[in-house]
Amino acid sequence: MPKGLTKISKPLALRLLSLCDGDEIWSCDYCRTQRVPEDWIVRLRDIYESNFADPGSTIYQEGNPLPHYEGVRSVDIAVCVAENLSIKVDPWVLESNHRAVIVAWIKERVEED
User: Fold this and answer.
1) Is the pLDDT assigned to residue 23 strictly greater than 70?
2) 36, 57, 94, 95: which could form a disulfide with 51 (CB 3.0–4.6 Å)?
């Protein structure tokens, strides 16, 4: 676990991981409804900007493109869940893979456990 973050139960960790796809940015309110600890939200939230030149890097809400959005990336939730479950996420995994691949890698490690 990153230093100072609340430890969560295994059932909650597995449920949160099942919701992660790597590409979504969860609103802070959505994080709260899913029982993401408040200190995780505070540590992980950021303001993300769209790149309208690249549709894959444009942020949408209800089908409408947004210039920016404050929230928590689901890939970051997945990494915290992995660490919460004592699964070490190697830096090379984070640096050399797409977000969805990182989440899939974490899910595979959880299934092996």
Assistant:
1) yes
2) 57
